[in-house]
Write a structure and sequence with these properties.
Helices cover 31% and strands 34% of the residues. Strand 10, helix 4 (144-154) and strand 11 (160-168) form a beta-alpha-beta unit. It has a single domain (2-212), classed as Rossmann fold (3-Layer(aba) Sandwich), CATH 3.40.50.2020. The protein is an alpha/beta fold and 214 residues long. It is built from six helices and 14 strands. Helix 1 packs antiparallel against helix 2 and helix 2 crosses helix 3 (86-95). The protein is globular, with a radius of gyration of 17 Å. The longest helix is centred in the N-terminal third of the chain and has 19 residues, at 31-49.
Length: 214
């Protein structure tokens, strides 16, 4: 289902995921359909991003007898970057047990400097060192917002931080890995470049605007 394009970058290339991304790219896709396909792609990305979750054995009784199974044993944090990251968070919460914690991170981009500006981050003072954090940001363009969000959790000394995005530009991947080389990035596609305004080309436009119809 996946192809590793480079160290710590996971490209999800399943045909159903690629089809969903194609519909997201189409500027004729209306908001209600865009949201549907965004949720679909998000599920594929989250499944693959969380492939390395730790498990432990557990027994279960079927209608015909005892069977061996597993349960998840990680302390999982889901961290969507507002507002577009909410769509991936919705998919992640459908998949994950209710024990997963959700912490929202509010960041916006200064269109003049392309720097990330924080406007909301209500995080705990401490997290378990062994917890696994999944930062959710549909568009990894310059990487400014992703780096700012990752830094918040790095400051809490957590052990594992992952980034999940629909699309990435090479510049954004480089920015993240220059700062945090151990962060695994899971994406649906890696596009050509950024334009002069810092948007991914060919990209899919502003994910937040298209998800919420604004």
């Amino acid at each position: 289902m996946t192809t590793s394009t480079k160290s710590n970058v996971q490209l999800v290339d399943h045909p159903l995921a690629t089809q969903a991304l194609t519909r997201l790219r189409d500027f004729n896709t209306p908001p209600h359909e865009f949201r549907k396909h965004a949720l679909s792609l998000s599920r594929f990305l989250v499944y693959e991003a969380m492939r390395d979750l730790t498990t432990r054995e557990a027994g279960v009784e079927t209608p015909l007898g005892a069977a061996k199974g597993i349960v998840l044993s990680d302390y999982v944090v889901i961290a969507p970057i507002l507002r577009a990251g909410l769509i991936i968070s919705e998919a992640a919460q459908e998949i994950m047990p209710a024990t997963a914690r959700v912490y929202h991170v509010g960041l916006r981009r200064d269109e003049a400097t392309l720097q990330a500006i924080s406007y909301y981050a209500k995080l705990p003072e401490k997290l378990p060192a062994e917890c696994k954090v999944y930062v959710l940001d549909p568009m990894l363009a310059t990487g400014g917002s992703a780096v700012a969000a990752i830094q918040l959790f790095a400051d809490l000394k957590v052990g594992t931080i992952n980034l999940v995005s629909f699309l990435a530009a090479p510049e954004g991947i480089k920015h993240v890995h220059d700062k945090f080389p151990r962060v695994k990035i899971t994406v649906g596609a890696i596009d050509e470049c950024l334009n002069e305004h810092g948007y991914i080309v060919p990209g899919l436009g502003d994910a937040g605007d298209r998800i919420f119809g604004t």
